[in-house]
Amino acid sequence: MSTIRDVSRAAGVSIATVSRALSSPDKVSKNTLKKVNAAIEELQYRPNMLSQRFRNKTANCIVVLVPDIANLFFTTVIKGIENVAQKRGFSVLLGDTRDSSNRELEYINLVETKQADGIIQLRPYAENDSALPKQSVKAVNASGCEDTPYPAVRIDNIGAAEEVVKYLISTGHRRIGIISGLPNNPHSIDRLRGYKRALNSAGIKFDPSIVTEGDFSFWSGMNASEHFIRMSDSDRPTAIFCMNDEMAIGAIKGFKAKGIRVPEQMSITGFDDLEFSRYCDPPLTTVSQPAELIGVKSAELLFQLIDGETPNQTEYILPIEFIIRQSTGVPRKT
Known about the structure:
Layout: H1 4-11, H2 15-23, H3 30-43, H4 49-56, E1 61-66, H5 72-87, E2 91-96, H6 101-112, E3 118-121, E4 139-141, E5 152-154, H7 157-170, E6 176-180, H8 186-201, E7 211-213, H9 218-229, E8 239-242, H10 245-257, E9 267-269, E10 286-288, H11 291-306, E11 315-317, E12 321-323
Parallel strand pairs: 1-2, 1-3, 3-4, 5-11, 6-7, 6-8, 8-9
Antiparallel strand pairs: 10-12
């Protein structure tokens, strides 16, 4: 196994510099950090975590709280977190909280008892159902929403949803349904606000009868499609805004199983731009979130807190990209 001495020799820097690059990379020049990281990759060096804990009085571990570990969007966020943590010599513990604040408290206790150094929360903050923030716990929200009361990395969910619906309106759709996430989820609330804002701008009255609920899963999207399939052709929307890609792909499957063609008879949009969204039939029009960058930024922000620094910025609102593919078209003639 490679040692820190091997890394210092390969990088052409001192052992102390390698140690500093691992523990406080922001205190090392970019050129030096590049050489150290290249040597670490080449030698497959893995820091001695136990000795670092004794020396630094840290656990060299961060916790990532995941509301649904099966959600594919979260796996990409976690990839970004892992990349940053590994370069710092930290391990990442995943906590599958199943959207439960009580389960979150069990993992938060690891930080309070010094078994972990900080937390990245992937569930958006909800005032009446959030275990964070806690004064004794260094934490960042990596899937935040407006007014998160601790450091957060997020997108503008309201603006993104508004952009999607305005696009559908621009192509001629006036009756646009929704498959939402759970109604108390802050992302669902914000995306519904964006939807309503777009309708209002176009002078279209909001109709709750064409809004149905999912839970962000593929199966809930397929089941939700039944709500629209049961409608008469004149009442049925000509387009559906789904609040994530998994529900959108489920809805496409549900409509096609009943002989409703997408997009000729029903336009469908998603949200997230998961890898398989471009390969489904038809390829999905969707909002692309920078999921891996969300993970990277949230980890960098957390490590600033762990290092005792005061971040220059405690909220990052990252840009989205609206991607138009073949699941949307002009409205059918009724």
